[in-house]
Each structure stands twice: as C-alpha cells, then as structure tokens.
Amino acid sequence: MAHNVWIVLQHRDGKLARVSREALAAGQKLASALGVEAEAVLLGSGIGELAGEVAGGAALAAVHVADHELLASYTPGAYIGALQGALAAARPSFTVFPHNYQAVDMMARLAQELGAGLLPEVLAFETNGDGDVGGLVWTRPILGGKMVSKVRVRGTDPMIVSVQSGAFPADEMVPGSAPVRDLAFDPDAVVPDREILAVESVGGDQVDLSKADIIVAVGRGIGGEDKMQPIHDLAAALGADIAASRPVIDNGWLPRDRQIGSSGQTVAPKLYIAAAISGAIQHVVGMKGSRTVVAINKDANAPIFNLAQYGIVGDVHEILPALTEAVKAAKG
Amino acid sequence: MRVAVCLKQVPDTEARLRVGKDGKWINEEGLPFVINESDEYALEEAQRLAETAGDGEVVVFSLGPDRAQEALRKALAKGAARAVLLSDPAFEGGDAIATGRALAAAIRHEGDFDLVITGSQSDDVGFGGTGSVVAGELGWPHVWLVMGVELEDGGTARVTREMESGMNEIVRVELPAVLEIQAGINHPRYAALKGIMQAKRKPLDRRSPADLGLDPGQVGGSGSRLEILSVGFPDSGEGAQMLEGSPEEVARQLVDKLQREARVL
Q1: Interface contact B254-A201, CB threshold 8 A
Q2: Would the CB atoms of A120 and B128 count as touching at under 8 Å?
Q3: For position A326, what pLDDT does the model report?
C-alpha cells in the first residue's frame, strides 16, 4: 500500500516560487492517483507567515514547517539534515521536488541517505488505476530532450522525484486548507557543509534582453565563431537583438550576457527566431513565453519544433541568408 | 595533490538517434560516442588544479562497456596519469545511485584523493546526481554546477556555483570534496600527438564488483529502482506549421506568415 506524498516547497523573499506551486499540483495529482494524501514541507528561517499562506491555500493533509536559523540559506548538509529524520519516519512513497538547481543539488544525496530511489525531471505520469506504486508509468526526457523514456519504479520503498518546470500547471493545484505542524528534526543533524561567502551576478553589465521585441537566437549547430555572420545579418535586417543557447556561450562565440535559459536570461519577445537550436529544456524555460516562435533546424525531430508556430527543416546557412533577403524585400 | 575524475562516454547528441530493437534504449549501432560534455570540462579543471599544485596526479574513472576505454584513452592522451574502467555486465543499467556507489568504491580502492571532479550531468540519461552520490559514499561535501575553483591554504576550496537567473554563489568547502563541474568553466585542451603516443603506454585497469568488494546486486540494473519500459520521441503536440520548399520559397512564405498571420512584423 502506498504512503502519503510529500512535497518539498521552495521560496524566495517570503514568496513561494512558481515551480513550488507546480510541485504542489503534481504532488496532489500523484496522491490522488495512489489514493493517499499530500503533505507539504517548508524549510527556512522566519517563514511562519508563508507557512500560513500555504496552509490556507492548498488542499493538503498537513504543512510541515522547519523554522531554524541554520536553514536561512540553502546548504545541502543543513537541508538534508533537517529533512531526513521526518522522511525516514513517515516514509512517504514519493517526495516531490520542483526540478531546479537547488533540488538537483540535494535530492540524489537525500535519496542515498534514506535508502530511497531517485527519479528526477519527470514530465508526466500515467496510472493503471489500482493505486499501486509500481503501476505508475513515468515519462522523463533523455538525450537533451530529443527523446523521452518511460520508466516504472521497482518495489515500494520511498522515491525522491522532481517535476520538470511547466509539466504540471500551477493552476491545477487544488485549493483548500491544511493544519500547520512543526517538522520533527534533530537540530544536531542540521549542519551546513559549506560556508556561503557571496552571491553575485554572472554578467556584470548585462544586456537586458527581457524587453526585446524581436530576438534572433543561435545554437551550437551554427558551426563556429567564424560562421555567425548570417545571424548578425538577419538581426540587422529585422532590427532584432541577438541571443544564444548555452553551448554557443560556453564556446565563447558570444558573450555570456546573450545567454537565454535556466542559467541565463528569461525573455518574452513578440518574435523569437531559433536558429540551429534543438530546444533542450534548459533553453526552453528561458524563451517559452515568446509570442511567436520560428524554428530552423536540420533535425526534423528537434524538440524546438514542438513549441514553435513555424518550422523549417534545413541548413541554417542556406535558410538564414534567404530569410534576410526576404525580410529586406518585405520592408522595401 | 591527487585528483580523481569520473567521466562517462555518451552518444553524440548531434547524431541522428533511432529507437533500438527492444524499444528500451536507442540503437547504438554506428552511433558516434564522445566524452560527456561537462565531463570534458571536469577533466580540464582537474588537470589545471593538479598542474597548479605542482606535484598533482589525475586518475580517470569510467563505468561503462568496453567502448568506454576510448574515452579513457582520450583522457590519458590529454594528460591523465592512469585510468580505471569499471567494466562488467553487473555494472550495466545502473541509475545515479548504483553508479555513484560503484565509482566511489573504485576511487577508494585506488587510495587517497584530495578531490573528486565530475561533470554535473550526463547528456544521455541526465540524472545529475552521480557525483553527489560519490560524495555521499565517501562522506565528503559536494558542490554541483561548479563554475570556478580556487584552492586555498588550509585545506579548503573557494568554489563558484551556478544558480538560476544569471546569479552565482561563492562558497567555501573543506577538502576532500566532490566538485561537479558545469560546462563552460574553462577551455578544454586538445590532445597533442605526443600525448596520444604516451597514452598507449599508460595503465588502464579494469575492475569488477568483486575487485571492489561490492555485491553485484548493489550495482548496475539490479541496484537500481527504475526499470526502463520504452524510449521514443516526444509527442509533437500541436507542433509547428512546417514550411517546405527551396530556401528562397520558405523564406518568402515565412515573412508573409509573420506579417499577415502572426502579425509580428
């Protein structure tokens, strides 16, 4: 028989991160599929008010709160130390995290401490309806999102799961209320294993792409620093800003303040032209708010075509110059 | 300073991918394999740190089938001193926990290290947790998505860790530690001809679960909680309107649609 589902929430500046509301929606859906209840966990310092908001807003069996000064900033040692006692005692069938950097940093080690299994970055699950843990079929991306795998969990021991951003819409969270409880943890186990010295911006004087109307973005498939001219030409014809996916930046073909995605900027232009970008999720999270997306890629299976409105399969070095000419012609 | 590097050989993600016969993994026949991208950066960072320390030694580890020795030879050609391949049918099909457990045992078996350096995530299955599990097994701190490392006097390292939204966090950890490197931290070197020749004579040892004192049931597929049922291409959803024709034709169609249909030009 399945145990309850726990959801570990993340917050910043006293507010729940959007991905946490998605994790709540996912956890509730999972609990309902297994015929159990969902419970949430909040870790931090001075988070009483936030705990009250969560407890007043979501249908949960409980909101467990660990409020401790050593939890004011995230360190894996302190956070795992605070979580592991309660999770070892309650043995939730699934502990759900939003799939972001903080979760990935800690979940493998948390699973290891608990003797639990690890199932990161899920996009969806299906159920055979009998509430059995092994009856769930999970979908997760592989090979940079170019393919997906369907997996099943063996056994009934606890699992640590993270849900991909955007996979479980936050507005499907079931509203309701829940009692607030203190999370039982051993303060001696809350031991930061790193000293936080500073937090700083990567880009320094950043180019702000968030207000751009039109963006021409380029991926590794362009082929090299010396092959970027067609991108510059198209951007000039359109009056667009130039941006890139991570590998272009890592290779030094464009400066880091041109990077779009989870570790770069988030943009929402009216037109986003993705040239030779496959559409890995780390890039997509930074541009999926764009109004119209055009994808140009030699691989017809590239995931970018799934979210584009217009797609062209072909060599960017043939398509881009033609497109530049067509734009110039249209503009007269 | 002794530095262990864990690297994985993965399919070239630019290659054309097909579903394999049993439907449970991709067809690897004829597929090019490369060193996982972030692991290339990890190797470079390990070499840089070992060189800075002066008397450094870099030992590379990989868990994988026979073909993975090509990745190890390449690392030896770039300057690593020795290589260890965890190659045994019992190691195959493991998740991050089973693989991390095996790698940690292999590292421990090779003696004391000051650092273990890995990539942050594999480009094939992408769990992003193997290095953290190695750290857990060894009882060391870990830092994931590392974008900078400075060794300090007194047995600590000042580590830059990537956060979301263009921010970095600078942290100090005590050594020994596991650092999981993010792509882009440095500029990986190429193997020189001399290095390629030398690599042929450098030791590449193979280890089985028994060599490492591991129960075969704890590693590989039998030590993992997930069973892959199938792999495939993502549902295309509504998908894009695909434009076809010569480059000039598709360019004209696109501009027309952006003006009249999407009204964004």
Answers
A1: no
A2: yes
A3: 96
